[in-house]
Amino acid sequence: MCPDCDDFARTVLLLGQLALYADMAGADLDFVDAVSPSLAMSLPEPPPDTFPDDSDPAEDS
User: Is the dihedral of CA 58, 5, 19, 30 positive or negative?
Assistant: First the structure.
Protein backbone atom coordinates (compact mmCIF):
# COMPACT_ATOMS: atom_id res chain seq x y z
CA MET A 1 0.00 0.00 0.00
CA CYS A 2 1.35 3.44 -0.89
CA PRO A 3 2.17 5.80 2.05
CA ASP A 4 -0.67 8.18 1.16
CA CYS A 5 -3.10 5.28 0.87
CA ASP A 6 -2.09 4.05 4.32
CA ASP A 7 -2.52 7.51 5.87
CA PHE A 8 -5.91 7.95 4.22
CA ALA A 9 -7.13 4.53 5.35
CA ARG A 10 -5.86 5.05 8.90
CA THR A 11 -7.52 8.47 9.21
CA VAL A 12 -10.84 7.19 7.84
CA LEU A 13 -10.65 4.29 10.31
CA LEU A 14 -9.99 6.68 13.22
CA LEU A 15 -12.92 8.89 12.19
CA GLY A 16 -15.18 5.83 12.09
CA GLN A 17 -13.99 4.65 15.49
CA LEU A 18 -14.53 8.13 16.91
CA ALA A 19 -18.08 8.16 15.54
CA LEU A 20 -18.78 4.78 17.14
CA TYR A 21 -17.30 5.97 20.44
CA ALA A 22 -19.50 9.09 20.35
CA ASP A 23 -22.60 6.85 20.21
CA MET A 24 -21.57 4.85 23.29
CA ALA A 25 -23.23 5.48 26.63
CA GLY A 26 -20.90 7.52 28.81
CA ALA A 27 -18.75 8.77 25.93
CA ASP A 28 -16.82 11.95 26.60
CA LEU A 29 -18.52 14.18 24.04
CA ASP A 30 -16.21 17.10 24.89
CA PHE A 31 -13.33 14.89 23.73
CA VAL A 32 -15.22 13.97 20.56
CA ASP A 33 -16.00 17.64 19.87
CA ALA A 34 -12.35 18.59 20.42
CA VAL A 35 -10.76 15.81 18.38
CA SER A 36 -13.12 15.26 15.44
CA PRO A 37 -12.54 18.56 13.58
CA SER A 38 -8.77 18.20 13.80
CA LEU A 39 -8.88 14.60 12.71
CA ALA A 40 -11.14 15.45 9.77
CA MET A 41 -8.86 18.32 8.72
CA SER A 42 -5.85 16.00 8.82
CA LEU A 43 -7.48 13.73 6.26
CA PRO A 44 -5.06 13.63 3.32
CA GLU A 45 -6.11 13.79 -0.30
CA PRO A 46 -7.74 10.50 -1.26
CA PRO A 47 -5.52 8.09 -3.17
CA PRO A 48 -5.89 8.03 -6.96
CA ASP A 49 -8.87 6.03 -8.26
CA THR A 50 -10.73 6.23 -4.93
CA PHE A 51 -13.62 8.01 -6.61
CA PRO A 52 -14.84 7.88 -10.22
CA ASP A 53 -13.28 10.46 -12.54
CA ASP A 54 -16.63 12.18 -13.15
CA SER A 55 -17.49 12.62 -9.44
CA ASP A 56 -17.52 16.14 -8.02
CA PRO A 57 -18.07 16.37 -4.25
CA ALA A 58 -18.80 20.11 -4.56
CA GLU A 59 -21.61 19.49 -7.04
CA ASP A 60 -25.14 19.64 -5.62
CA SER A 61 -27.24 16.54 -6.24
Answer: negative
Question: Hey, CA dihedral for 1, 54, 40, 27, is it positive or negative?
Answer: negative
What is the number of other CB atoms lying within 10 angstroms of the CB of residue 22? 15
pLDDT digits (tens, 9 = 90+) for 2-61: 767 788 888 899 999 999 999 999 999 999 999 999 998 888 777 677 777 777 667 755
Residue 20 dihedral angles phi and psi, to the nearest 5°:
-65, -40
In angstroms, rounded to a whole number, what is the distance separating the alpha carbons of residues 24 and 21?
Answer: 5
Task: Measure Cα distances from 34 to 28, 39, 52, 57 in Å.
Answer: 10, 9, 33, 25
Residue 13 to residue 7: CA distance in whole angstroms:
10
